[in-house]
UniProtKB/TrEMBL annotation:
Top class in the EC scheme: transferase
Protein name (Swiss-Prot/TrEMBL): Ubiquinone biosynthesis O-methyltransferase
Gene designation per UniProt: ubiG
Similarity comment: Belongs to the methyltransferase superfamily. UbiG/COQ3 family.
Binding positions (S-adenosyl-L-methionine): 43, 74, 138
PANTHER family on file: METHYLTRANSFERASE, UBIQUINONE BIOSYNTHESIS O-METHYLTRANSFERASE, MITOCHONDRIAL
Keywords, comma-separated and alphabetical: Methyltransferase, S-adenosyl-L-methionine, Transferase, Ubiquinone biosynthesis
Length: 266
């Protein structure tokens, strides 16, 4: 793999340096990324349900995403990318740190999975004219600079009729108390400095940044029980939340546009 020069305006050098130091721990489910391993099992079910609904697939099938092209932006060590590949999707995982790409490639080889990993930004990928059936933006938007530019690039990567799934943390006082002060400083679930309050993203900022062609079709809050570390859906989006957007010319119906998290997750 040839390294490329990463110069897009949405790249924060401090974020790159921070995660490079932790790259070797991605697949240690007892290490600093254990919350991602726990969260991954929860969000994979949500993504599978949403994509099967949009693309009229049987969510109970062993490989319900067979043939779909999926982009996993900020794939980290490949935790979500591998999960999508196991469901039958053709997956491209992208990262901005070479160490993470190396970890992803090695682990995919160990797992016997055919996943394409690229050291490339969303900005450069969009300039290449690449498009995908589904773009996964999970726990990424709260780590970028120049959010509107980043979201605009991501929207360009969704092909007609395709979807984008975003998971992030709301910028609210409650989110600061629980996701930053509580999770990082009190419980130690995440390394200190993982999140910065000013970078947390409100739902309407996602909608505005993705543009009118990307229509919200589902949203749900996510909560975690601090005692048993179990993730569940929540009617409140005040802390963690997920949203699904579909490109408008993909014939979104009124029922889809008004669906509730409960309907989507059944």
């Amino acid at each position: 793999m040839t390294a490329i020069h990463l110069s897009a305006p949405d790249i924060d050098p401090d974020e790159v340096a921070y995660f490079e130091k932790l790259a070797h721990r991605w697949w240690d489910d007892q290490g600093p990324f254990w919350p991602l391993h726990k969260l991954n099992r929860f969000r994979v079910d949500y993504i599978r349900a949403q994509l099967c609904r949009v693309f009229a697939r049987d969510a109970r099938a062993e490989r319900p995403l067979e043939g779909l092209e999926i982009l996993d932006i900020g794939c980290g060590g490949g935790i979500l990318s591998e999960s999508m590949a196991r469901l039958g999707a053709r997956v491209t995982g992208t990262e901005i740190t070479e160490k993470n790409i190396r970890v992803s490639q090695i682990h995919a080889g160990w797992s016997g999975l055919d996943v394409t990993y690229r050291l490339v930004t969303a900005h450069d990928l969009a300039r290449e004219g690449k498009t995908f059936d589904a773009v996964l933006n999970m726990e990424v938007v709260e780590h970028v600079d120049h959010l509107p530019d980043f979201l605009a690039d991501c929207a360009r990567l969704v092909r007609p009729g395709g979807v984008m799934v975003v998971a992030t943390i709301n910028r609210t006082p409650l989110a600061w108390v629980t996701a930053i002060f509580g999770a990082e400083r009190i419980l130690g679930w995440l390394p200190k400095g993982t999140h910065h309050y000013r970078k947390l993203v409100k739902p309407d900022e996602l909608t505005d940044g993705l543009g009118a062609e990307m229509v919200p079709v589902d949203r749900t809050g996510v909560r975690v029980n601090p005692f048993n570390r179990v993730f569940k859906f929540s009617s409140s989006m005040a802390v963690n939340y997920m949203m699904v957007f579909r490109r408008a010319n993909g014939s979104v119906t009124a029922d889809q546009a008004s669906s509730t998290p409960a309907e989507a997750s059944v």
